[in-house]
Amino acid sequence: QVQLVESGGGLVQAGDSLRLSCAVSGSIFSFNPMGWYRQTPGKQRELVALITVEGNTNYADSVKGRFTISRSSAKNTLYLQMNSLESEDTAVYYCYARGRTYGREYWGQGTQVTVSS
User: Fold this and answer.
1) Ordered mean pLDDT values, 10 residues apiece, the chain (117 residues)
2) CA dist., res. 46 & res. 80, Å (int)
């Protein structure tokens, strides 16, 4: 049973930093890719960042240079370091993983990030 549990969200001011964590049941290398999406009311979820088992990364243009996706095999945890946060970054952030064996897609419950001006 695969579970993704996000943490680290909160209320911050513009210019501040946050690090989101996604604890994964089992080895993180059982999934390819893994990533972070975000969603605001009335909009579809949008891709923020992805990372492959090879370590290749992709970022949304709006977060390039500010956000960094990484992972820890020892802790079976995916991270999103968010620097220079802007009010436009306010959203619910979701952890995503695709199973390598059967191609199943998994989502976390989401963690709220609110950036005030």
Assistant:
1) 94 98 93 97 93 97 98 95 97 97 96 96
2) 15
